[in-house]
From TrEMBL:
Protein name as it appears in the record: Haloacid dehalogenase
Pfam families found in the cross-reference section: HAD_2
Species this protein is from: Nitrospirillum viridazoti CBAmc
Taxonomic path: Bacteria, Pseudomonadati, Pseudomonadota, Alphaproteobacteria, Rhodospirillales
NCBIfam families reported for this sequence: HAD-SF-IA-v1 (TIGR01549), HAD-SF-IA-v3 (TIGR01509)
Cross-referenced Gene3D superfamilies: HAD superfamily/HAD-like (3.40.50.1000), Putative phosphatase, domain 2 (1.10.150.240)
GO terms, molecular function: phosphoglycolate phosphatase activity
Length: 225
């Protein structure tokens, strides 16, 4: 019997909550603050999961210097939290999430999060949905190296008393899958987020779930394997 705890480590944006509209609106405000044309919605969705600074850098038009990043990031944060305070930063939970968390906990798994969100933003999202006490480890890109680095996954394992063989990363982007593989953990993709299933499989997902009802059994099977 392994002495390590079993850990289900979730991404947030695109996995727990559908935050694309809030992110796209805040990114548009950030670019507009610097007199730049906002990136397309699809371009923004492709960057979700990365730390905010890295995502902005990847969205800068050709010829725009990296010096614009700080201004865009600051304006993005201001816009996001202003929209949330005004009730227009919608981040609904994906259907079936709470039941899946219940099933994983009943099966003996600890729950954690590794996300490109800031810690402040993640806590606000979890508290809004009454999930603040469900996750024993919260890893964010402003407190650790962002995806696809293994840093957040390794920190989560250390806090949870888990190891790579007892950990499954659940996420919707190739960055989540790469983080899991870089940390030696199993990677489980979800099809309802922002990267296509083919991209998740190519990045190292062991399988892709199409509904939250599939997730608890898939996580258990990956740890057993």
């Amino acid at each position: 019997m392994s002495a390590f705890n079993r850990l289900a480590l979730f991404d947030c944006d695109g996995t727990l909550v559908d935050s694309q509209h809030a992110i796209i609106a805040a990114m548009a405000a950030g670019f507009a603050s610097q007199g730049l044309t906002p990136p397309t919605d699809e371009a923004v969705r492709r960057q979700v999961g990365l730390s905010l600074e890295v995502a902005v850098l990847g969205l800068l038009p050709e010829g725009v210097g990296a010096g614009a990043v700080a201004g865009i990031v600051a304006a993005y944060k201001d816009a996001f939290f202003a929209n949330r305070a005004n009730g227009i930063a919608e981040e609904p939970l994906y259907p079936g999430l709470v039941a899946a968390l219940d099933a994983l906990e009943a099966a003996g798994f600890l729950l954690g999060i590794a996300t490109g969100k800031s810690h402040r933003g993640l806590v606000a999202t979890l508290n809004h949905h009454g999930l603040g006490g469900r996750f024993i480890t919260l890893q964010t890109a402003d407190r650790a190296q962002g995806k696809p680095s293994p840093d957040m996954a390794l920190r989560a394992m250390a806090e949870a008393g888990a190891d790579p063989a007892s950990t499954v990363v659940i996420g919707d982007t190739s960055y989540d899958m790469q983080m899991a593989r870089n940390a030696g953990a199993a990677a489980l993709g979800v099809a309802w987020g922002y990267h296509a299933p083919q991209s998740l499989l190519a990045a190292g997902a062991a399988r892709v779930c199409h509904d939250y009802a599939e997730v608890p059994a898939a996580v258990a099977a990956l740890v057993a394997a």
